[in-house]
Amino acid sequence: MEHILTQLWSESASDQNPFEAEECLCAGYDVYGDLLLHANWVDYLLLLIKKEQPSAEQTKLFNTLAIALANPGPRDPSIQAAMSAGAGGSTMASCLMAAIAVGAGNLGGAREVAIIMSTWQQLEFNPENWKQFLVGKVWQEKPPHTFEDVWLPLEHPMGFNPNGVECPKPLKQTLKALSIISPGKHLSWLNYNRCILESASQLPISMTMIAAATFLDLGFHEEQGEMLFLLLRLPGAAAHALEQREIGWKNYPFHKQGVVVTNDPSTSETNTKIQTKPNQALIQTPS
Amino acid sequence: MNQPNKLKILNQWEQTWETAMGAWFPGERVLFRGKELLQELNQLSWMELILFGITGRQFQPNQIKLFEAIWVISTSFPEPRLWNNRIATLAGTSRSTVNLGVSAGIAASEAIIFGHRPLLATIDFLKKTQQRLANGEVLTNLIKEALNAQTRGRPGSGLNREVAKVPGFGRPITTNDERLQPLLTTAQNLGFTNGIHVLLAQRIEDALQQQGHNLYMNVATLMGALCADQDLSPREYYHYVSLCFTGGLLPCAIDAQSKPEGAFFPLRCDRIKYQGPKKRQWKTNKSKPSDVDKTEITT
Lengths: 287, 299
Prior knowledge:
heterodimer, A: mainly alpha, 3-stranded antiparallel β-sheet, 50% helix, 7% strand, B: mainly alpha, 5 strands
């Protein structure tokens, strides 16, 4: 018989049914006899990933990050993806799959978080390293002997918002709140050096940078950070998808006048706007 | 930071999506890459339409037969143990929807030991190698360089896993690739086995053997070589293979839905081989993290 190897989970079978567990241990802790009574959800999530009970400081830090990431709001592409599924009446699973797919990438997504974490380990806590990296656009350089991959090359320095003008207040609030409570160095270093980095890149930092710093302070490696970033942003996707499902497609933006076809042979004009009846195209919330 | 310019870009795109890919004119027509889908393209096969959508080019009938044969022969196994197919099967046995199972299976096909990442890496490797040979470099040197390349991780396990250093050669589970000869025969019948990339693939395999490496061409190499010879770019090829596993995923999900619920390789509790810390108690005072009982055990 082949086995599933794991350092995470063990089960004792019920006497009556070898396919049913009598007791489940997570990294040695009795899930239903102990954790259920004494741990909170964030403790348990950290335990699942790290296989060790977190300290109170780690739990507090992770809990605060989880709140910051839980809902990027309905303008975020991953949330729009979930809402699009919801508005069309798609399955609940597809709403979350849509959010994960869209929020996985290089622009504000989980892949970017992983790249920041990897880069930070190379550049360390040296502002000069970061300045050279950003001013010299070293982030654009492709390592030798690498093949084309499913992920596209970066189009902006990792951790910065290519469409940003200045660091938004919610990001400053998040960075400050996290850096005060963090037991690690990355967040406080970022908080102290943010303006230097932003000046070097000519771009404001994005939430991915703050998330990456938090994951590094919690001792996660980049693959753990990438996975957790995907997971922690799902609550907002779920909530907005549920809401748009109820509101319905007629009140969900369709950008009815928005698509401009540049090569329509049926018209002598260069560009042809698709003509449809004007309709509401606003993100609405129930009154 | 250049505020006016940034806002100019966002303002420019806020209300308008310019595209040459096409659009739906509600109640009237559908434009597809500058052609009327319902009048000009309605006689195309699915594969012809897919490739026109990807590339904007229309291919000869023999080329379309080749592209279809690659999917049929190389990537359509109704084998529920394969990793992506297993997801579709598990969806079926768990009474999720077939579509969800297939969608997740397609997503999981962007894997490292199989699927889209090695497929993409392979055509890229072939094209770059061909280009460097055309510039006068020597094949044996290029292979040595590839084999000696520094990578962050290994393909099969560990952190930061990466595709093989010489992608398209070697295979998990078995070294023999039963798909090679049937695909080669089909390609031969269609007249596509004398292209520069197909010939290069064979030269690379020969060179690997001469250097003492037990690595044989797998079907990814032949797929990539044949498509490179049809002038697909690596990115176009990646888009072309994005749905290539659906032929195997669908029957796996359907099969599992037709069987009793939860019947796909159910696992007994003792099939979990635990290798972590032994049983311990959660510390309710978390001022100090628990570090007791970290002894590794195996049950």
